[in-house]
């Protein structure tokens, strides 16, 4: 069976290259002054991916799902809408789902003349292969470009290399644990560590499968056979394959946040009135959380009127005796 490391890497990177080309996910969240909110989600994809894809799409009746037929298009457009009493209620919609996580933080601060609103929506990194920290692999300049959404070929190659190293590291760590379970004196974690780089080069260079991996390990262990070795290798490769298939996020994302009052600050790509908008591909939050932040302010006119009234009353109290004497 030719379930090789290089084949898995090629398939995974191919998914990244084509992710977001056809599938679209648009979310619009309106925050009201009282902290309640309304969320509208529009998804364009084939129905099987909408229902079974890794990125959570709410599909229960409370969202009133409605499919919109598209002429001359095999994909469908799904429209969803739901109102929430507060952001905590919206957060519960995403909690406990076997999917890419979304977390929302919201804060409302009353400051007499003004009320300030702070909203943060986080798309949590979904890759299962993050053993090597991204900031230890990329240079500071590369990391800065990556977080800024750089799409250059040079940076893309570096991210592909990072993916390769992480998947191999995951394979290697699981193989080391398997060696302990096999408990054969000729196959020790120390032996694997000594040959780690050589094994990595062999697995990545050629499209090797389970048998070739097994043969390589038998060679460095100087053995003709090691009980359970083939089974352990198959389990590791199947696990890698399962994780790659499970966490297939393809959408091109658009996220809109509509705030009460005037927007004061945001990291959005564009702002129109009181709406902040972000556009990004799925691989933007593959390895690092993607945070979307916006802050706004409303004027409390009633506080101005109350303050004005209090000042007027104080002035009358202070001036009335003088006016009376005059």
Keywords:
single chain; alpha+beta; 326 residues; 11 helices; elongated; 7-stranded mixed β-sheet; 4-stranded antiparallel β-sheet
Topology diagram in text:
Layout lengths: L4 H14 L5 E8 L5 E9 L1 H6 L13 E3 L7 E9 L2 H8 L7 E10 L2 E10 L10 H4 L2 H8 L5 H30 L6 H6 L1 H10 L4 H12 L7 H18 L5 E7 L3 E5 L3 E3 L2 E7 L8 E10 L1 H25 L1
Parallel strand pairs: 1-7
Antiparallel strand pairs: 1-2, 2-4, 3-4, 5-6, 6-11, 7-10, 8-11, 9-10
Helix pairs in contact: 6-10, 9-10
Walk me through what this model shows.
The chain has 326 residues and is an alpha+beta fold. The protein has 2 domains: 158 residues, no CATH class; 93 residues. It is 43% helix and 25% strand. A 7-stranded mixed sheet has the order 3-4-2-1-7-10-9. The protein has a 4-stranded antiparallel sheet with strand order 5-6-11-8. α6 packs antiparallel against α10 and α9 crosses α10. The longest helix has 30 residues. It starts with a helix and ends with a helix. The model has no long low-confidence stretch (mean pLDDT 84).
Could you give the count of β-strands? 11
Mass-distribution shape: elongated
Strand residue content: 15-25%
Mean pLDDT: 84
Radius of gyration: 28 Å
Low-pLDDT residue intervals, each spanning 5 or more residues: none
Tally of individual helices: 11
Helical amount among residues, as a percent range? 40-55%
Supply the helix-strand structural class. alpha+beta
Reading side by side through the largest sheet, how are the strands ordered?
3-4-2-1-7-10-9
Main sheet characteristics: 7 strands, mixed
Distance between the termini: 107 Å
Number of domains: 2
Oligomeric state of the chains present here: single chain
String of helices and strands: HEEHEEHEEHHHHHHHEEEEEH
